[in-house]
Amino acid sequence: MAAKNFVNSSEVIVLPEKNKIFLSQIFDWYERDFGGKEGIRRFLLRYLDKNDKWAFIDRNWSTIKVEYLFYDWNLNH
Fold this sequence. Notes:
The chain has 77 residues and is α+β, with helices and mostly antiparallel strands. It has five helices and three strands. It has one domain. Helix content is 47%, strand content 18%. A three-stranded mixed beta sheet has the order 1-2-3. It is globular and about 35 Å long. The chain starts with a helix and ends in an 8-residue tail after the last strand.
């Protein structure tokens, strides 16, 4: 449930017109734990709602430019 809520929040932003997605920095920091870029793709597709965001990532992953969002450490206080 937490993973589903996380990836369906503002921690995953899709900009199809720019062929770009923004992900939480957690995906960058722990990329190896997710199984690399392909593991991140599988994680996103597993937990994202089946909507336009899911379809864009599914169809375009190999060409998508990935950027990472600023992580707000204040959330942990």
